[in-house]
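Morning!

This is the sequence you dropped in the shared folder:
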Amino acid sequence: MTAEPAITTRTIAVPDLEPVWFLELELTLTCQLRCGHCYNKSSPAESHGSMTRYDWEQVSGAAPAAGIRRVQLIGGEPTMHPDFLPLAEYALRAGLELQVFSNLYHVTPAMWELYAKPRVTLATSYYSDVAELHDRVTRQPRSHMRTRAAIVKALECGIPLKVAIVETFEGQRAYEAHAEMKALGVPNLAPVDRMRGIGRATEGTGIEATCAELCGQCGNGRAAVNPDGDVTMCVMSRFLPPAGNVRKTPIGEILNGPAWNALLPLVPRLGDEPPCAPISECPPASDGNDCPPASTECEGNALLLPIPAVNLRKAGNQ
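The structure's back. Tokens below.
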């Protein structure tokens, strides 16, 4: 794969959407956790996919010329990929801003060194202020203790951090978890989101993965590459056909192509007035109009550090 020429103009099928400047790199489906709402059904038994280290480096190397300024390493648990640290360093050398979306279950000294570097931000998920309820979501004992301790350490080290909270069952104490994170001083705290009917969340719930389950921001300034190289509008929209594969076609060409533009109109955007069905009663002081498609950013998209969602348009034009 060769480097791409700079793309100076791009025709977008939905005029109000931004060209892609943020790219989620879904390095692996492997994860220490088995969260019941996981959009890609990741677990310790899953694989890293068919993308090689060289393939991922080609994507990062070509990203700036395609108009992308920030990449996010996500999974699964991205730190479980054997090339996680080299790929993170490669993205930084390519001139990209880097975000790591990690469950923070296991953080090595080398990872802390990476997270403390300039142009690096960190994001994680937190589910309850009660350990057993948090661990019920993750299906992994001691995950609450480990994740919370890492959150505290990140704050103490001054590492830019965003925390996403998803309510998956009644009595989870998701809003109490939100208040706890706010009290700790988490600088970028997403509103509590509902569980999306995607991936493992469809098992035993009767929820079907449809575009109504998406937050409405798919493809709006963002795109994703999955572990096999397929390009989607975000990690959540994986059930839709891919726009192409980076192992065959450069990322910039895919994002400027007809298949990408055909996907964008499929997603209901804000203002389409769908029925509101949150798990808990919406608290007006802290919610984010959490009705599908929601204005809150889903767990997989709780990632736009340090730029607030209201500034997405401005950021995409810079």
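Headline: The longest strand covers residues 120-125.

More detail when I'm at my desk.
O.
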